[in-house]
UniProtKB/TrEMBL annotation:
Residues 8-86 form the RimM N-terminal domain. One of its GO terms (cellular component) is ribosome. InterPro entries: PRC_barrel-like_sf, PRC_RimM, RimM, RimM_N, RimM_N_sf, Transl_B-barrel_sf. It comes from Sporomusa termitida. The keyword Secreted does not apply. Pfam families: PRC_RimM, RimM. This is Ribosome maturation factor RimM. The gene is rimM. Its main location: cytoplasm. An accessory protein needed during the final step in the assembly of 30S ribosomal subunit, possibly for assembly of the head region. Essential for efficient processing of 16S rRNA. May be needed both before and after RbfA during the maturation of 16S rRNA. It has affinity for free ribosomal 30S subunits but not for 70S ribosomes. The keyword Cytoplasm applies. Belongs to the RimM family. Binds ribosomal protein uS19. Residues 99-166 form the Ribosome maturation factor RimM PRC barrel domain.
């Protein structure tokens, strides 16, 4: 599987102890996922088998099969941990992963292409989609049901009703 098709869930920040454990900074909303994983893809290394996972303060401690010394673990520092789409946590209906939202074509209710989502801001109460219009302007659209009418991940489309159009 090409690494570009993988989803990043953590970063190895340092070795931990002398047995070859590594300290992981989780880059996921679901840090408990590490306990159920059998393998992960380590950036520029490949697929590695996990022996154990346990929480440690704000980190996860992982033990990889075949990594048994602090020096071996140290060689993995700074690498990203990735998983395949089949290992993603299933989200409830109506919720989407940000990496699925970015790149969607956004249309208004008249079917006009407004642009492409390039980023998702998370300022607090609700997410905000950053849409790059065809004339390279930014259009900010709140991710609320009154504005976002339909999301079609497979079709790479989003239908919105802009606030000026809501009156």
């Amino acid at each position: 599987m090409p690494e570009t098709d993988l989803i990043t869930i953590g970063k190895i920040v340092a070795p931990h102890g002398v047995r070859g454990d590594v300290r992981i900074f989780p880059l996921t909303d679901f840090p408990d996922r590490f306990h159920a994983l059998k393998t992960v893809y380590v950036e520029n290394v490949g697929q590695m088998q996990l022996e154990s996972a346990r929480p440690h303060k704000k980190f996860i401690l992982l033990k990889f099969a075949g990594i048994n010394t602090m020096n071996e673990a140290g060689n993995l520092s700074g690498k990203l941990l990735k998983i395949g789409r089949e290992d993603l946590v299933q989200l409830p209906a109506g919720q989407y992963y940000i990496f699925d939202i970015i790149g969607l074509n956004v249309f208004n209710e008249e079917g006009e292409l407004l642009g492409i989502i390039t980023d998702v801001l998370q300022p607090g109460s609700n997410d905000v989609y950053v849409i790059e219009t065809q004339d390279k302007q930014e259009l900010l659209v709140p991710a609320i049901k009154e504005v976002v009418k339909q999301i079609d991940i497979a079709g790479k489309k989003m239908l919105v009703k802009l606030q000026e159009e809501m009156d």
